[in-house]
C-alpha cells in the first residue's frame, strides 16, 4: 500500500516535521546483513514523511559504539528506536537498557532456522525493560508502530496514518467487490 498515492480522490495530507537533529526515528541494526530486511520499513517511514537515520550498532562487535549512540539518541531528538538483529538478537534489548525511548525490535531471520531464536531473544525481556516485538523480518510493522507512537504527538503523522488505514480498507474492499461481481 503506497500511502503517497491518491486513492479514490483522497489526497494524503502533507507532513511537516522537525526535530533538533532532523531524525525522529533511528533504525539500528546488528549487521550490514540486516539492511535488506529494514529497507521496507525505512521506505514506509519515508512515505509518512518521518525523518529517519540508520546505523550499524552491533551489541556484540561494537558494544561501546552501540552504548554511545543509544545514550545520545534522545538528546539528538530521536523519539523512537527501531532495532533489528538476528540469531542471538541482543541489540533491541541492550538498546532498551540504555534509553527510556520506546524501542521496537525486529527479529531478523538468520541463515539457519526459522527465526524463532531471534523472536525469543527480543521478546523475552526481563520486567522493567520492555521491547515491542514485531514478526520475523517485519520491518513494515515496526515502521507503522513507530508512526502510531509518533502520531500521538505529531498530528501530521496521525493524519497520514488515518489516510493509510483508509487506503488499506479501500484496497481490500475493491478486491472484495471484484470477487463478488
Ligand atoms: C546479528 O547477527 C546481526 O543482527 C545479524 O542478523 C546476524 C548475522 O550477522 P552477520 O554474521 O551476517 O554479520 O548480530
Search tags:
alpha/beta; 181 residues
Describe the structure.
- The chain has helices at residues 35-47, 63-73, 91-97, 116-123, 139-153, 155-180, and strands spanning 25-29, 52-56, 80-86, 103-108, 132-133.
- The two termini are 23 Å apart.
- The longest helix is centred in the last third of the chain and has 26 residues, at 155-180.
- The chain has 181 residues and is of the alpha/beta class.
- The chain has six helices and five strands.
- Strands 2-1-3-4-5 form a five-stranded parallel beta sheet, sandwiched between helices.
- 44% of the residues lie in helices and 14% in strands.
- The radius of gyration is 17 Å and the shape is globular.
- Strand 1 (25-29), helix 1 and strand 2 form a beta-alpha-beta unit.
- Bound molecules: 5-O-phosphono-beta-D-ribofuranose.
- 5-O-phosphono-beta-D-ribofuranose is lined by residues 30-31, 33-34, 58, 60, 85-87, 108.
The percent range for helix content is 40-55%
Give the tally of β-strands.
Answer: 5
pLDDT averaged residue by residue: 91
Query: N-to-C SSE series?
Result: EHEHEHEHEHH
Uncertain regions: pLDDT < 50 for 5+ in a row? 4-14
The general outline is globular
- Cα(first) to Cα(last) distance is 23 Å
In order across it, which strands form the biggest sheet? 2-1-3-4-5
Q: Radius of gyration over alpha carbons? A: 17 Å
β-strand amount: 5-15%
Query: In this structure, how is the largest beta sheet organized?
Result: 5 strands, parallel
Ligand inventory reads: 5-O-phosphono-beta-D-ribofuranose
Number of helices: 6
Question: Which structural category fits the helices and strands?
Answer: alpha/beta
Amino acid at each position: 500500500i503506497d500511502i503517497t498515492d491518491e486513492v479514490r480522490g483522497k489526497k494524503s495530507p502533507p507532513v511537516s516535521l522537525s526535530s533538533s537533529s532532523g531524525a525522529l526515528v533511528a533504525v539500528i541494526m546488528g549487521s550490514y546483513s540486516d539492511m535488506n530486511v529494514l529497507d521496507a520499513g525505512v521506505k514506509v517511514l519515508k512515505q509518512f514523511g518521518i525523518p529517519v537515520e540508520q546505523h550499524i550498532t552491533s551489541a556484540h562487535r561494537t558494544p561501546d559504539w552501540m552504548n554511545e549512540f543509544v545514550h545520545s539518541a534522545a538528546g539528538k531528538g530521536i523519539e523512537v528506536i527501531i532495532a533489528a538483529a538476528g540469531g542471538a538478537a541482543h541489540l533491541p534489548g541492550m538498546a532498551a537498557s540504555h534509553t527510556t525511548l520506546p524501542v521496537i525490535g525486529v527479529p531478523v531471520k538468520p541463515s539457519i532456522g526459522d527465526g524463532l531464536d531471534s523472536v525469543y531473544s527480543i521478546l523475552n525481556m526481563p520486567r522493567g525493560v520492555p521491547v515491542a516485538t514485531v514478526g520475523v523480518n517485519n520491518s513494515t510493522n515496526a515502521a507503522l508502530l513507530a508512526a502510531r507512537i509518533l502520531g500521538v504527538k505529531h498530528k501530521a503523522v496521525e493524519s497520514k496514518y488515518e489516510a493509510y488505514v483508509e487506503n488499506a480498507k479501500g484496497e481490500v474492499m475493491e478486491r472484495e467487490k471484484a470477487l463478488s461481481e
